[in-house]
């Protein structure tokens, strides 16, 4: 089995925030067989492990990870047949949106420009601009804790805002089926271009970040609350509340994960004190 296995690998190169220490091992499987091999290897070695996608919504601490980090971005593959898109866990969300466009399917335009993978999107029920992955997901194949492959439906995943069953059960998404409605390609492309233009104009894409730092509070917006508290541009070390969009914590140069976490804590405490709203992180921290 030829699964790429790296030792003492720096995690900052894989994380979109460009921070984090080293992992004892990093495994880069290209298919399901290599994934199962990697997990079995860590079991045999009594090493703890974590499975991740594009690392666009998570943060590794500066201490790194004393075990195995399995990164699934090489497990790509996408196809269309009879109105259904089938996508593997490591495929990008933008590729899902483009496949839908190519086949005249509407309903997945919101995926365009989200930097994560399909697997990561299922894990956290990713969404943007009024859309969520649960709206187009039909069913998927998953690896359970006994390394058996099981099929689960949309309903069985118990999706909610930025949440799914995968966050509570030891299940790994392998591949899934997605369906939208028949649509006009020109209209679909126009909507995708509109959303991408909005991202570029409103979000600090020129800096490393983990996307939206905090979940949207009920009946409010995290960025608006943070800006209301006068925190735009507030900086700790190399981490800053973006001056372009207060909902993003960015790496303005040589930030550490500690800088990011300390800034998140400061923002959370300040917003709670001044508005009474407790922000919840959308970023997943791997320790």
Task: Tell me what you see in this structure.
The chain is an alpha+beta fold. It has 3 domains: 68 residues, Uridine Diphospho-n-acetylenolpyruvylglucosamine Reductase, domain 2; 110 residues, Uridine Diphospho-n-acetylenolpyruvylglucosamine Reductase, domain 3, CATH 3.30.465.10; 83 residues, Uridine Diphospho-n-acetylenolpyruvylglucosamine Reductase, domain 1 (Alpha-Beta Complex). Helices cover 26% and strands 28% of the residues. The protein has 6 helices and 19 strands. The strands form 6 sheets. A 5-stranded antiparallel sheet has the order 6-7-13-11-12, with helices on one face. A 4-stranded mixed sheet has the order 1-2-5-3. Strands 15-18-17-16 form a 4-stranded antiparallel sheet. A hairpin with a 2-residue loop joins strand 9 and strand 10. The radius of gyration is 19 Å and the shape is globular. The chain starts with a strand and ends with a strand.
Provide a short characterization of the protein structure:
This protein is an alpha+beta fold and 287 residues long.
- Biggest sheet, spatial arrangement of strands: 6-7-13-11-12
Percentage of β-strand residues = 25-35%
Helix-residue proportion: 25-40%
The total of helices stands at 6
CATH domain topology of the largest domain = Uridine Diphospho-n-acetylenolpyruvylglucosamine Reductase, domain 3
Count of DSSP strands: 19
The multimeric state of the shown protein is single chain
Instruction: Report the principal-axis shape.
Output: globular
Q: Give the low-confidence spans.
A: none
Report on the biggest sheet.
Answer: 5 strands, antiparallel
The ordered string of helix (H) and strand (E) elements is EEHEEEEEHEHEEEEEEHEHEEEHE
Question: What is the gyration radius calculated from CA atoms?
Answer: 19 Å
- State the secondary-structure class: alpha+beta
Overall pLDDT level: 97
* CATH class group of the largest domain: Alpha Beta
Distance between the termini: 29 Å
Q: Do you know the CATH architecture of the largest domain?
A: 2-Layer Sandwich
Summed up, the domain count is: 3
